[in-house]
# Entry
Amino acid sequence: MKSAVIVFPGINRERDMARALKLTSGRAPAMVWHAETQLPAGTDLVVLPGGFSYGDYLRCGAIAARAPIMDAVRAFAAKGGLVLAICNGFQIACESGLLPGALLRNAQLRFICRDVYLRVERSDNAFTRGYNAGQVIRVPIAHGEGNYIADGPTMARLEGEGRVIFRYASPDGMIDPDWNHNGAMNAIAGIINERGNVLGMMPHPENHVEASMGRTDGRGLFAGLVDHFKLAA
Amino acid sequence: MKARVTVTLKSGILDPQGKAIEGALKSLGVGGVASVRQGKVFDIEIEGADRAGTEAALKAAAEKLLANTVIENYRIEVTG
# Structure
């Protein structure tokens, strides 16, 4: 699996992501600067990592979404290439039109940094094939603007087409306002695009891939991706 | 030409910052505050364009970057 991590000024999770990709795929990703206009030849997976691109100026992800490299990322996605967008990357994906909706300030107005439980809604896609549908995983979140929102018709499509991939849940998988940490609509933590090749999620699976991190629940996502490309090869 | 673009959240979009400001104004005893919505103001100077050209440039700026039209509305005023 040849992956490319896009590096925007102000992001800070690109090295966590690179480490997780190296560990799980055996291959270090290319680190691609935002001012580039092309992805490395043969890229299988593009990752928009987490952090605070451009200091969250204007809106989270708004300026990064207009960076030169994003035209290449959009073209890559349009051809069916896989794009994994985590945290600020999810915000960038929404701002760039790769995914619908927007991420607003957390309903509680606080930055939240803690482990959360996610219910994996589907496992029949390239990203979550390493999990079982209905499985609950525990991964960290660290964001101030993760409160997902979309208009009525968009939400109806997301739900109707089964494009909600992760929801904030209780440890036993119940959807409950008490466990919906940022107030996201329908407890949405992660969605996929219509074609199933762009996943955006606020939580950080890359931070739970090694025993020394305390948990390895995030590993399934990366193992699934590696598996996906092995089968495709 | 000088112009101002005002970006506000669409009605129905939760504005927790506006709510917090509203609460603070009420606790200060500012009379009659019913509600507060927070927005953004951009003062922009456009060079070498007439009024129509300025308006077109600002519309492009608002649509492409200044506003996220999923959640926000914008208003353009050419001020001279």
Observations:
- The interface with chain A takes residues 13-14, 16-17, 20, 64-66, 68, 70-71 of chain B (CB under 8 Å).
